[in-house]
Specification:
about 290 residues; mainly alpha; 3 domains; 2 strands; about 65% helix; about 0% strand; flat
Length: about 290
């Protein structure tokens, strides 16, 4: 719980600080010591690194997050045998702080470019949403491995009972794989905590750009068309809310226009390309020869 609280507060404070730095970047004169500002390290004399930038090497806050995650993680490992609850709580708080700093710049790590304020930078917001959702479910008592904690596993230690539980676990994971192959990442993620969601995701149509559609819908144009139309219709309100939240967190609190929503739908909703059989032909010819 304290890890999640520290994560949310750190993310909110970090976004507020970065918005302030961006809004005041053009102000003349030096900043006061108490005003938030970017942290930079001057390049070494004679070095080409950072030359011409005027600000030296910019230290992103993900660097501090990595350090905090490593220190707190090692601390929790070393306290595993005799650490107190207060010590674990303190380490969890620092872990939440570090994780928020890292995930706030997840897009930078993913693209290896400073895309913090660009459209690609929204990936960081999505990563934070996913982390908060998973942590929130854990705090509420949901367990992704709950199928190992049912009464039959605790009360009956026979091989047949354990085999039943293991089969249930394998089937659950198989359903999760099918849902993920259908492109339903959130359904698969939440379904690991709420199993009925996996059945719903596995039965319903695949998203048109997912691997499942690529493998099974190429010879079924009607099914692919239904998938595309259904995707655009069902995802529209979610895209609107997602864009609005991203605008708020990015410092642009406004409701997205229809053109922006349609552009995002065009980017997200597309037909999967057919499987590449060009590489399979030489392999078949080689095997036949």
């Amino acid at each position: 719980m304290w890890c999640l609280i520290a994560f949310c507060i750190t993310f909110f404070v970090t976004r507020s600080i970065t918005r302030y730095i961006r809004a005041t970047a053009g102000r003349p004169g030096p900043r006061k010591w108490w005003q938030p500002h970017n942290i930079s390290v001057s390049p070494k004399a004679g070095s080409g690194d950072g030359a011409g930038t005027g600000g030296g090497l910019h230290i992103h806050h993900a660097v501090f997050g990595v350090v905090l995650v490593l220190i707190s993680g090692v601390a929790m490992v070393t306290m595993a045998s005799d650490g107190s609850k207060q010590q674990f709580t303190a380490a969890a708080i620092f872990f939440g702080i570090g994780a928020a700093l890292v995930l706030d710049e997840f897009a930078l790590i993913l693209h290896l470019q400073d895309v913090y304020w660009s459209s690609d930078g929204r990936t960081s917001v999505d990563a934070v949403f996913a982390a908060v959702a998973v942590a929130g479910l854990l705090v509420l008592g949901f367990n992704p491995l709950s199928f190992f904690d049912i009464s039959i596993w605790r009360d009956d230690d026979s091989d047949s009972a354990r085999a039943v539980v293991i089969v249930m676990a394998v089937l659950t994971l198989a359903l999760a794989v099918v849902v993920l192959l259908k492109g339903k990442l959130w359904t698969g993620l939440l379904g690991m905590f709420i199993t009925p969601l996996l059945f719903v995701g596995a039965i319903r149509l695949s998203r048109p750009h997912a691997p499942w559609a690529r493998w099974h819908y190429q010879d079924a144009p009607r099914k692919m068309h239904r998938s595309v139309e259904r995707e655009r219709h069902l995802r529209r309100p979610f895209v609107q809310v997602n864009l609005w939240l991203q605008h708020v967190l990015a410092g642009e609190p406004r409701f997205p226009s229809d053109l922006e929503v349609n552009a995002e739908l065009d980017r997200q909703v597309h037909v999967a390309p057919p499987p590449d059989r060009s590489s399979a032909a030489p392999m078949a010819a080689k095997a036949g020869g």
